[in-house]
Amino acid sequence: MLQQIDVRMPPLLTATGICKAFPGVRALENVRLQIESGEILAVVGENGAGKSTLMKILAGVYTPDAGVIELDGRPVAIRSVKDAGRLGVTLIHQELNLAGHLDIAGNIFLGREPTWGGPLRLLDRGFMDDAASAIMRRLGLLASPRRLVQDLSIGQQQLVEIARALSLKSRLLILDEPTSSLTDSETTLLFTVLSELKADGISILYISHRLKEVESIADRVTVLRDGRNAGELQRHEINHNGIVQLMVGREVKQFYQRSRGDGARQAAVISVRGLRWEKSQRGIDLDIAPGEIVSLAGLMGAGRTELAETLFGIRKMAAGTVAIDGKLLRIRRPKDAINAGVFLVPEDRRVDGLILSDSVKHNTSLASLSLLSRFGIMQRSREETLASAMCERFNIRTPTTAQMVGNLSGGNQQKVVLAKWLSRTPRLLILDEPTRGIDVGAKSEIYALMDALAHSGAAILMISSDLEEILGMSDRVLVMHQGNLAGSIDREALSEEAIMHLATGGGAHL
Amino acid sequence: MKKLIGIFGFMLFLVFLILEATDRERWGDNLFNNGQRIGLAGILCIGAGLLIITGGVDLSIGSVVGLCAVIFCWLILDLPVLAQKHLGMDIYVPVPLAILGVLLSGIVIGIVNGVMVTYLRVQPFVVTLCGLFIYRGLARSLRGDNVPAIREHVEDLSSFFKGDFLAVPTYIWLLLVLASLVTVFLHMTKYGRYFFAIGSNERAARFSGINVDLYKILAYVFCSLFAAIYAVMYVIHYNTVQPSNTGNFLELYAIAGAVLGGCSLRGGEGTTVGMLIGASILVMLPTLANMWGVRDTLEPTIIGGALLACAVLDEFLRSRSKT
Which range marks the domain in which residue B225 is found? Predict the structure, then answer.
């Protein structure tokens, strides 16, 4: 790929000597990044390595403290998102920025709607629909331009964002963790779209923690570590171990840490019989033994999160029984589950797991306030002791426990959610996508925690869409399909194919 | 914290300006007079502030004040008459019992508002906007829209509260007692923590096992209860009630005071001290304008302008601290 590019043509974008500091943190130091026209460049690094900061600088969200950005070989000043847009640089955030109540065409042209009728400024719907359809066809987005964006799947919504960028004549698309909430088929579709865009000469900066994706799509990989360039890999050098080595600066030997016990059958921690949250379901039966890590696999919308939320009392149970350590448990609200030692680390930590605007300390204690108070009065010194102990135990990287959680990296945020629950002793810990969007180092730490927890006799139910993770960590895998349990696979028979077979409805239902 | 210091400084500045515009021998009177009014207004601001911290809002406060004030008079004046007429019983409702009845009414109204918001999932704005109309109508019809002759019943209390203790108006003492209780609740107990958690991120609070609905209802109860307390103090202070307009627009003053004092309408932010400062500014600003010869018909405009200036300044400082 690279060899075909005319050597006399300057690269599309070159950033050199980029520095950026935030109060207390040096986010970027003398970072260099270069991307050619029609190239897919992956930028990887652990959370806190400075990827997001660098991307935000290129997209005009932040201004760098020092450094030069050149576009087509000419220095440019990107002082705002508007500047970046004019220069053809668009950042597509992990959390999409769309107006759900507007239709697709309305979103694509949001803020620069074509009009007719002179001073009347009437909306030119015909032109909007036609232009939107043309771009949508190019992206393989098969829907009416009048469809409301809120009715689209996440994958389709992402294509709408890309469509908007294309309609802005963007030459450089920056995608931040674009696949974090996509299904496998949506991811495949996105990759096809990206390859086609690349063929059209559009450059793509691709940020992802999913190294497999990086391996399959990137022309080149730039690795950042602690705010500096850690190295670069050309197309033929890209492989999982190579990337990980550059990211962490050493070889990660044992990524999945699962040391299984002797497998002695003990009475189940949790026994679920005939559980339903919707009338249409067949009942779900489920047992998990102490020390067992059971994964819940399935496609998006298979009902895995719903099952977790029902067990935790967020969702109303329509039928069935749940017993913890042989005792029947009536779960009407989360408190009932918590009192029985059933804890949930939710899927979306930023929305359900944390109060981002509050401190590490207050987040850590939020589920244990009753234990940290006497006659309702908070015992602040005990709270502080707990929070510092948890930060140490989970290696949460924060200057103080008073730090706002929203300022921490994704991996550290997730560790705060874990700390919130593991300051108490769980009988059953339900982890919903525990490592989504977090870096390799933090992932490995979380796996180690799960292993230790299982050893201490707790049962773990892990919902995951990452097959590698499921294969690496589970003692047993339950697969859901369309709201029902489609099957159970023991450790010995575990394979990606076996899981996908059941997840796509190929198995005999239990 | 910075915000709190800022508005505290502004309040001191107002005090200074008021004293500066007053003859030295009238300093005491003027401060005393303002103190009384702050003591009253503060009650409402604390109630509204507590609710705003949980992310709620109550537009019915003014009507609740009106209704509770009328209920107060009804309990004392009409209940004995009705009992005599229909049951042949000779009863007498002592003032303390009537006060208790009013506070209970406030609690009931709060529960109604809260249940509508939580269990029936109606937006707080809509629920309490309807309440604004409903409670006013009830206030006007309960005693046939008459101005009650309540003076003789509350005269003793009236002279007590209009007095002072250690040269500080009794109203201020009452407010300080209430504010201390609320401070302990809000900033020292786990329940206070729940309030802030719910206001900051209701879903995360729910996922942490907090009984969100229960505490939201409690917040509405607090708000209406403080409105009921205000209603009692109003009757004691003014010795009269106008069913059709007592309390009108008070919800807006209460919210304005809380917001001036640093409560965010997005929820999750606020302090009791801030609410008290907000209430003080709300009272002193129009006083000062009046002293400077501004017509008192402009009072709402001045308060609105001050609030707007605060909001703009706050947003400005916020965006500057981000970049």
Answer: 37-285
**How far is A288 from A475, CA to CA, in rounded Å?**
10
User: Among residues B50, B99, B43, which one has the least CA distance to residue B71?
Assistant: B99
Q: What is the pLDDT of residue A34?
A: 93
Do the Cβ atoms of B274 and B261 come closer than 8 Å?
yes
pLDDT tens digit sequence for A111-146:
888 888 888 888 889 999 999 999 999 888 888 999
Q: CA nearest A21 in B: which residue? A: B323
Asked if residue B94 belongs to a domain, the reply is: yes
Q: Which CATH superfamily is domain A1-88+171-253 in?
A: P-loop containing nucleotide triphosphate hydrolases (3.40.50.300)
Query: How many CB atoms are located within 10 Å of the residue B83 CB?
Result: 15
Q: What is the largest CA-CA distance in chain B?
A: 75
Tell me if B197 and A366 make a contact (CB, 8 A cut-off): yes
> Which residues have a Cβ under 8 Å from the Cβ of A493 and sit 6 or more positions away?
none
In a domain, B158, yes or no: yes
pLDDT digits (tens, 9 = 90+) for B243-283: 998 999 999 999 999 999 989 888 999 999 999 999 999 99
Tens digits of per-residue pLDDT, A354-366? 999 999 999 999 9
Query: Which single residue is written with the structure tokens 């709201």?
Result: A483
Distance from CA of A284 to the nearest CA of B (A): 23
**Using a CB-CB distance cutoff of 8 angstroms, which residues of chain B are in contact with residue A352?**
203-204, 207
Q: Are A366 and B190 an interchain contact pair (Cβ–Cβ within 8 Å)?
A: no
Contact of A369 with chain B, judged by CB distance below 8 Å, is answered with: yes
Contact B190, A374 (CB under 8 A): no
Size of interface A-B (CB pairs under 8 A): 72
Q: Does B193 sit within 8 Å of A362, measured CB to CB?
A: yes
pTM for the whole thing?
A: 0.79
Residue whose structure tokens are 């390859």: A195
**Domain-embedded: residue B123:** yes
| Record: contact B200-A357, CB cut-off 8 A | yes
**Collapsed DSSP state (helix, strand, coil) of residue B66:** helix
How close is the nearest chain B Cα to the Cα of A405, in Å? 13
Distance of CA B303 to CAs B167, B228, B255, Å? 29, 24, 12
* Of A314, A362, A369, Cβ closest to residue B207: A314
Q: What is the count of structural domains for chain B?
A: 1
Q: Closest chain B residue to A355 measured between Cα atoms? A: B201
Cβ–Cβ gap A335/B190 under 8 Å: no
Facing residue for A377 by CB, picked from B188, B194, B205:
B188
Chain B closest-CA separation from residue A250 CA (Å): 35
Pick the CATH number of A270-341+425-503 from 3.40.50.300, 3.40.710.10, 3.40.50.360, 2.40.50.180: 3.40.50.300
Strand order in the sheet with A484-490: A342-345, A428-432, A459-463, A293-298, A476-481, A484-490
User: Residue B193 and residue A378: Cβ atoms within 8 Å?
Assistant: yes
Q: Nearest-CA distance from B321 to chain A in Å? A: 11
* Interchain pair A338, B197: CB under 8 A: no
Which residue, B35, B28, B281, is CA-closest to B161?
A: B35
For residue A393, count other CB atoms closer than 10 A to its CB: 14
How far, in Å, CA of B198 to CA of B190, rounded? 12
Distance from C-alpha of A298 to C-alpha of A465, rounded to nearest angstrom = 7
State pLDDT tens for residues A225-249. 888 898 999 988 888 878 878 887 7
Q: What is the ipTM of this complex?
A: 0.87
Q: Could you tell me where in chain A the CATH 3.40.50.300 domains are found? A: 1-88+171-253, 270-341+425-503
With respect to residue B13, please indicate whether it lies within any of the assigned structural domains.
no
Which of B207, B214, B215 has the highest number of chain A CBs within 10 A, making it the mutation to test binding with A? B207
Which pairing describes strands A270-276 and A319-324: parallel, antiparallel, or unpaired?
antiparallel
Chain B nearest C-alpha distance from A136 (Å): 35
8 A C-beta contact, residue A466 and residue A491: no
